[in-house]
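Input.
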Amino acid sequence: MNKVKQQIHYCCDDTMRGNVKGQNITVAVLDTGMAAHPDLKGRILAFYDCVNHRHGLYDDSGHGTHVGGIIAGNGVLSQGRLAGMAPEAKLAAVKVLDAKGEGDVAQILEGIRWIRKNYNRFRIRVANISVGAKLDLDEEKERSLIQAVEMLWDEGITVIVSAGNYGPEEGSVTVPGNSRKVVTVGALEEHGMKNVCSGAGPTSQCIVKPELVAPGYQVLSCNSLYRKNRIPYIRKSGTSMATPVVSGAAALFLSKYQDAANVELKLAFRETCEQQQSGRNQGWGLLRVDRMLDMWR
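Output.
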């Protein structure tokens, strides 16, 4: 087992987390929806559909369910072996992308407005946005997206955003990951990775991005088609998978340190990440959950 695989393992191991499992924390997931997977049963508090305006859980892509499993799957179908980062955290699923994983800015903004309206009701402390607009986005739409995620941040919600997969050239972080306030996540470079090129900074305002990296290659998580094909887990790769690793870590931190503000959490990421000898565009370095949870005794 190499160092990266060990990192994933001990992030999700009960002996490492102790009794900290994301209790009393809700993570909002802006994505393609969420399926009723057994590993998430009873912990999806809300579902809001900005695309088709349907009621009831569904995920016609599978991307959002995979992301949700990385954050909060309890691993019931694997006897706990494939539990997510914060297996007792709750989720609020907001569908902003269609079956192809595509969406427009208006839908994403609608989803963000829903979070702002409901974050107290559902105790939302973290927003996971494994979504990135292309680099040629209209300037007005870019400003609108950045302003929207920064308003969430200003409300006290920790916003975790993917860096996108358009790297590794400079200035290739997708919107709204180029916001100066949010925490932007890249995928850790691993042997054998192909076509997973994390977006890189600096931004046009000379801000270093991403802030940190996390494992995002061939990650096993919940399969939205489980009820149909009886395959409980599937593998996906990209910054979309690295981002919920960090969101789950945020849920653990906020569960242990419930009075911590999002700026303190961002500082905790910075102070506890581990720089890698190889790999570009890693910002502060590799997420270290063990260090984060022991930061304040």
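Residues 186 and 200 are 8 Å apart (CA to CA).
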